[in-house]
Amino acid sequence: METDVAGVRQAVSTGRLPAWDRVEALVAAAYGRYRGHGAGAVADYIPVLAEADPGLFGVVVAEVAGDMHAAGAADVEFTIQSISKAFVYALVCDQLGHDVVRDRVGVDNTGLPFDSVIAMELNDGHPMNPMVNAGALATTALMPAASPDERWERIRSGLSRFAGRPLDIDTTVFRSESATNHRNRALAQLLESYGRIDIDPLRVVDVYTRQCALRVSARDIAVMGATLADGGVNPVTGERVVTPAVCRDTLSVLAATGMYERSGEWLFEIGLPAKSGVSGGIVAVAPGKGAIGTFSPPLDSAGNSVRGQRAVAYLSRTLGLNVFASEVHPPTVPPTTQRSGTA
Ligand code: GLN
To answer: How much is the pLDDT for 87?
Structure first.
């Protein structure tokens, strides 16, 4: 697409998805190939998440034109968890701009687990990475609002605009996490001690825990991702949610940090900006084309859904989504097969 910016003709070129029938067949094939795959373990550090059905598996592709392709448990709801970090980051960047958020929260991978305290200590109290808990807490605290209730409402309504429907909180998961999130409270208080949070840190944890407990489906996260792929316009509702510049910034942060400490391996093998969450969701975004949303609760040792990673790897290759590839490439091995542990 070519546009005039300040008198200079500028262009972005992303290519196209294959024809509708082909995408439809490949989504069904991704589901069929991996639904019997049994590796990984359901997260249990938030007690109620341990009750998730490990057999659930859904795969969805949302195109920037608004077309949808779904297989399996595409409409089963789960809590968004860490995937919220990507969209709250986009909303806060939209409000405050590129520089403020970059300076306050950072854009780099810590190389350490998502709930690491030592990562902050090693970086003089700088959270470094908006896609792990410390940086996400700092980002949530930046959402402009006169009160915690208003901050929560702005986040809930913003994420709902990304999804194209009103999202509700799962109160059981919220209460279960609130009763056990001592580590996040410690992270928020440490952020306050380093001057990275200016408001009551425990109120920030409360809003963050709520945002993580919003209920979504694989279809919802595919639409949310497709909004980032579509320059900030929700392809189903037609509503502009954030600017094109915010989408570019958010996707570059996801490429570097979205799959926790495995982000480099993920980019190397699969070549797409993505974000995962501990209840088993993954959203992967193909700029200008669309997004993949997957849901399957069993995780690997970094907290990334095992079936989801395989389905996205397959679709990235067969739909031609790898942002670094210019010719057909041989199959790659998803990162999950390279480590032995399970979460
Ligand atoms: N709410 C979870 C937490 O803060 C989110 C973590 C995740 O999805 N990795 O621990």
So the answer is: 98
